[in-house]
Design a protein that fits this description.
Number of strands: 18
Distance between the termini: 18 Å
Radius of gyration: 21 Å
CATH architecture of the largest domain: Alpha-Beta Barrel
Largest sheet: 8 strands, mixed
Structural class: alpha/beta
Shape: globular
CATH topology of the largest domain: TIM Barrel
Strand content: 15-25%
């Protein structure tokens, strides 16, 4: 099927420009000032809409294989397509854990059969994510770009040094969940701060995050490994990474939508919708994250999309499992909370949700390139929408953003030249 998007505002080469976009029968993209081809299958009037590179999320949990009662590759990639995403990186806390090619093949087959968009799986750093023995990194490097034990930090400095040395040798990226378990108190469920004291709950210190980042930055500098930090949440982490970049460490990092838009003071009730790891930090931490995004210290905006069953999220802050979902409204939330309020430029957000990730991980799809496969999304920024459970495609309905109104709705998502999501235009 061929079609033309007419009269759209296209984000191209770092600027928003009035252009037309053709997607031909082979799925290839052409962007030009004026395209008039009467023999295409469809012409869509995209006046007053924004045509963007498809979003790329470096951090999602698809739950398959092993935890299909929470979510599936089919359900979650459909939800992500609705949010404008065309590529996502899936985390390895699965069963079987992708610590060998035999185990990875289970996930690759499921992706091939069920994914609505491009899914790039991480291999695990250690076998079973147990932190005691390296995974089969060499054979896994044939099918992955990076390694992560997300959900757990690698506790042993020697194990992380060995992983970084091996990753550098294989030209792969270490993607680190940073959490020093020696600094955790059993039962920690929200940030160690005002709200934990007010609610009488066990807190999670910022030091448990930034101390391991500090260690890993030294190891990355020592080994020359390309190092990416998952979901940073506190001001100390921003400062450490900013300084490391200035001295030439090959480091990148991401921040979640919820850490940019919320802080501990937004926890209004004892509800599992507010429980995630890392937790919502202080207002000062939130502001430091926004500043880090603006000055380029933070490279990417991710979702850390982590669906759980309704029962698993209904046990209150102390006993619910950690993790929330936000992929379907990620851009709309950030646009409403940061761009419309004048806190962050639209271009900064767009680059953090597509180009920067493609650039760091060395993949295609981060910009609109003529004669390449089309990976794009179309948004109506004037449309105001309420986030409700009923409106969500994801199986994981637990999100702190339920009930909020956001500006910006996805009208169309095209992945590798094929329409994977479409709303009436």
């Amino acid at each position: 099927m061929s079609f033309v998007l007419k009269n759209g505002d296209v984000y191209l080469n770092g600027k928003i420009q009035k252009k037309d976009c053709l997607i031909d029968d082979l799925g290839r993209l052409v962007v030009a000032d004026d395209i008039d081809l009467p023999d295409v299958d469809e012409i869509l009037d995209c006046s007053s809409t924004l045509i963007l590179p498809g979003f790329i999320d470096p951090h999602v949990h698809l739950r398959e294989p092993g935890f299909e009662y929470k979510a599936t590759i089919a359900s979650e990639t459909a939800a992500m397509a609705k949010g404008g995403f065309t590529t996502v990186f899936s985390m390895p806390n699965l069963n079987p854990c992708p610590d060998s090619m035999e185990h990875m093949e289970v996930q690759l087959k499921a992706i091939d059969h069920h994914a609505k968009i491009r899914v790039i799986p991480y291999g695990s750093i250690t076998k079973g994510e147990k932190g005691t023995e390296l995974s089969e990194m060499e054979e896994l490097s044939e099918v992955t770009l990076g390694f992560s034990d997300d959900g757990k930090g690698v506790q042993s400095e020697e194990m992380m040094r060995a992983a970084m040395k091996k990753a550098a040798e294989l030209n792969c990226i270490i993607v680190a969940h940073c959490e020093d378990e020696s600094l955790l108190v059993k039962g920690g469920c929200i940030h160690l701060g005002k709200k934990s004291e007010e609610l009488g709950l066990v807190g999670i210190s910022s030091e448990s995050e930034w101390k391991q980042i500090e260690r890993d930055l030294q190891l990355a500098e020592e080994t020359g490994c390309q190092y990416h930090v998952c979901h940073i949440s506190c001001k100390e982490s921003v400062d450490l990474i900013r300084k490391a970049k200035k001295r030439g460490v090959n480091v990148s990092c991401e921040v979640t939508v919820h850490h940019l838009l919320l802080n501990e003071e937004d926890i209004k009730e004892d509800d599992g919708r507010y429980k995630m790891n890392p937790p919502l930090r202080s207002k000062e931490d939130q502001q430091a994250l926004i500043e880090g995004l603006k000055d380029g210290t933070i490279d990417m905006i991710c979702t850390d999309h982590a669906p759980h069953s309704k029962e698993e999220k209904s046990r209150g802050l102390a006993n619910s499992l950690m993790g929330i979902t936000s992929s379907e409204y990620a851009f709309s939330l950030v646009y409403t909370g940061l761009v419309k309020t004048g806190k962050v430029k639209l271009e900064t957000v767009l680059d953090a949700m597509s180009y920067n990730c493609a650039n760091v991980f060395g993949i295609e799809g981060g910009d609109l390139t003529n004669f390449e496969k089309a990976n794009l999304t179309l948004f109506d920024l004037m449309h105001r929408n309420k986030i409700t459970e009923k409106s969500l495609l994801t199986q994981g309905k637990s999100t702190p953003f339920l009930g909020q109104y956001v500006h910006g709705v996805c009208l169309l998502t095209v992945c590798d030249g094929q329409i994977v999501y479409r709303r009436d235009i």
